[in-house]
Amino acid sequence: MFLLLSLPHKSREFPGCGNIVTFAQFLFIAVEGFIFETNFGRKRPAIPIRYYLIMVAMFFTVSVVNNYALNLNIAMPLHMIFRSGSLIASMVLGIIILKKRYSVSKYTSIALVSVGIFICTLMSAKQVASKSSLSEEDGLHVFMWWLLGIAALTFALLMSARMGIFQETIYKQFGKHSKEALFYNHALPLPGFLLLAPNIYAHAVLFSQSEPFQVPGIGLTLPIMWFYLVMNVITQYVCIRGVFILTTECTSLTVTLVVTLRKFVSLIFSILYFKNPFTAWHWLGTLFVFVGTLMYTEVWNSLGPLLARHRKEAKKE
After folding, report:
1. Which UniProt keywords apply (predicted)?
2. Residue in 190, 230, 227 with CA at minimum distance from that of residue 63
3. In the chain, where are the structural domains located?
4. Helix (H) or strand (E) holding 222
5. Whose C-alpha in 28, 165, 246, 274 is 20 to 30 A from the C-alpha of 15?
6. 88 CB contacts (<8 Å, ≥6 apart)?
């Protein structure tokens, strides 16, 4: 667990290193997919490339915008909670684009999530204001950057929801191909990182100047930031690969529930490990977000029959 949290913790010493982290993740998944999924480019994709180009343009934009939001006075807990509101964006765009209609319980869950995000956003705004300098002008400057961060998160949230709707439409037409989608979603955006090359190179130099670290078991010595980056890439690959496979192996209810629980666990670890300020209002907002998310997945309806069956089996015994 320490290794999973060390790179985010060390990133405070290297602000703005999100681009090199994202690039390393994309490059690793692209190389692995090129070898094992496309058989060195000899296997034709089941879904036409033009659809993947649209998909990855959205995916790349969301990833970069979310990274830059952390440099705009957005605290990590708020960042994670805000992104947990993806159900709101998905429902709104589903109504607008797909003309969907939902039950009262669905709208109630969305209301809970909305209130939770509003509470956390408001409390974080007060923290930003309290941390600003004594100068009113400087305080306004900090607060305006924070507002820009909120705008960036909102844009990324809506773009991510639009990408989900696009994926849903494509998968219905061509079928689900999790490994193929994983590869093309990470390989096609790689040229876009050329725009970020100066930033990536600068942080690569900084990583190389970090203190030396001897890797346990193999005796290899390398800068500690490169070690953290490698461990982050490996764990992120396992996580992302799992989510892509989960979408084809399980129902949407199970996928949403697992991802929600992962976000919740990540949030708790972030708060405890980084000692982020988290007030009772933040906890209340977090509770609203995750209760609303679980209501949206209708997990309660699924647990009811399961518990009833368990009681019947217990009585028989």
Report:
1. Membrane, Sugar transport, Transmembrane, Transmembrane helix, Transport
2. 190
3. 16-129+139-192+220-314
4. strand 221-223
5. 28
6. 110, 113, 114, 117, 157
